[in-house]
Amino acid sequence: FPLQIPELAKGTVLMRERSKVEETIQAMQRAGAGSLQVISDFDMTLTRFAHNGMRVPTTHNILDNRLLINEDCTRRIRELLNTYYPIEIDASRTAEEKQPLMVEWWTKVHELLIQQKIRKDMLARAVKESSAMLREGYKVFFDRLAEHQVPLLIFSAGIGDILEEVIRQNHVFHPNLHIISNYMDFDRTGVLQAFKGQLIHTFNKREGALLHAAHLRELQGRPNVLLLGDSLGDLTMADGVSQPQNILTIGFLNDQVEERKESYVNSFDIVLVKDETMDVPNAVLSYITSAGDAK
Ligand SMILES: Nc1ccn([C@@H]2O[C@H](COP(=O)(O)O)[C@@H](O)[C@H]2O)c(=O)n1
């Protein structure tokens, strides 16, 4: 039977193998919500890439607020962004080539942030004053997963404390949520002194998946995975899943579309081109979690 998901016919949707996508979704639907877990990147995947022609800030860029960092720090962080972001999305370099440069970028930015003596009690206000924005349809996405008790693992190379605050301020911080990210370490007076644990950047998520995600009890016994990302590095986020059965990957292609289209279509099952909505993930989830409903 052809799949009744009209959203897959949207002009923004590209698929290398439509029949394989359909078979995977049908298998996931038959297994039901109890077999499903969702693993998602955060910045520019659950958040929008742009709004009204302006870039939406990533969790790192939300810190660009005078409450937290001074003008000189802003300038230096922007210079680093202008140097390293084009490398991050460069279609002509491999992930292996990019790895050491990403470590360099994240390390330099985190050192600058630590020098600023950022105060924990200022973070919520900085998020409130920012133009952070989750994708259109985010509420349906978070609420449906919570309603069906499907665990949502957010795996982010951004800043965990900021990410949590964005989700909290949008009122979708449900108990099914698990987060792996770079968390700030504050001293006893609430001043940033370091970042906790091993650094997560865009191209080392596999290590994080094996180290952390693989041991999350709530994800055990759920062999079907819906994975959402905006970078080819995000495809390794499911590497910690033991004995996976069906993995459906959805990639948001936000930037450098023509240069990266081919590699995205070859790597993700579904590619969403400059689509600022959660329409397709929501439609797929609605189908999968509707076991027993009349089709
Ligand atoms: N100083 C930085 C470092 C990284 N970024 C962007 O954040 C994204 C990482 O977060 P994910 O939730 O997507 O894993 C990454 O794509 C970088 O472009 C930044 O803005 N500033």
Descriptive overview:
The protein is globular. It is built from 10 helices and 11 strands. The chain is α/β, with parallel strands linked by helices. The model has no long low-confidence stretch (mean pLDDT 96). The chain folds into 2 domains: 6-49 and 134-288, 3-Layer(aba) Sandwich (Rossmann fold); 50-129, DNA polymerase, domain 1, CATH 1.10.150. Helix 3 (71-88) packs antiparallel against helix 4, helix 5 (123-129) packs across helix 7 (160-169) and helix 6 (138-147) packs parallel to helix 10 (279-288). It has a 7-stranded mixed sheet with strand order 1-11-10-9-2-5-6, with helices on both faces. Strands 3-4 form a two-stranded antiparallel sheet. A two-stranded antiparallel ribbon has the order 7-8.
How would you briefly describe this protein structure?
The protein contains ten helices and eleven strands.
What attributes does this structure have?
38% helix, Rossmann fold, two-stranded antiparallel ribbon, alpha/beta, DNA polymerase, domain 1, 295 residues, 10 helices, binds ligand L45E5XJ5, seven-stranded mixed beta sheet
What's the arrangement of secondary structure elements?
Layout: E1 13-15, H1 18-31, E2 36-40, E3 50-51, E4 54-55, H2 59-62, H3 71-88, H4 95-115, H5 123-129, H6 138-147, E5 152-159, H7 160-169, E6 177-182, E7 184-186, E8 192-195, H8 205-211, E9 224-229, E10 246-253, H9 257-267, E11 270-273, H10 279-288
Parallel strand pairs: 2-5, 2-9, 5-6, 9-10, 10-11
Antiparallel strand pairs: 1-11, 3-4, 7-8
The chain binds the ligand Nc1ccn([C@@H]2O[C@H](COP(=O)(O)O)[C@@H](O)[C@H]2O)c(=O)n1.
